[in-house]
C-alpha cells in the first residue's frame, strides 16, 4: 500500500516541473536524458525525496500488512535473507497489548515500545521536512 502512494506523489513532484524547463533544455540542443537529468530531476528531487521518506515513515507504522508476511514476536538473531522472519515494532505493540498472558505487567513495555515507534516516525517526518526545505532553498533560489 505504500509503494503506490510513493509513486503517485513522485509523479506529482515531476509534474510540478515547469514545461518551459524541459523545452528550454531541448531547444538548446540537450538530449531528452540530459534535459531530465540536469533540469527536471533537480527541480523535482525535493518532492521525490520527501515522498520516499514519508512513505517509509508510513510503512513503519502499519501493522495489518506485516501480520501476514512473516513477522515474529521475538527473534534471537537478525534475519539474513529476505525470506527469513523479522520483527516489527507495530506487531510487538499489538502482541503486548492484546495477547500477552500478563498484560498488566507488560503494559510499561508496550508504552515504551509505542513511544519508540512514535519517536521513530516523528524523526523520519522531521528529516523529510528538513531535507525538503534545504533542497528547495538550494534549487529554487
UniProtKB/TrEMBL annotation:
Its main location: membrane. GO terms for biological process: transmembrane transport. Keywords: Membrane, Transmembrane, Transmembrane helix. CDD domains: TM_PBP2. InterPro entries: MetI-like (IPR000515), MetI-like_sf (IPR035906). Coiled coil: none annotated. PROSITE patterns: ABC_TM1 (PS50928). One of its GO terms (cellular component) is membrane. Residues 1-128 form the ABC transmembrane type-1 domain. The chain crosses the membrane at residues 109-131. It is a multi-pass membrane protein. It holds the Pfam family BPD_transp_1. It is found in: Membrane. PANTHER family: PHOSPHATE TRANSPORT SYSTEM PERMEASE PROTEIN PSTA-RELATED. This is ABC transmembrane type-1 domain-containing protein. It comes from marine sediment metagenome.
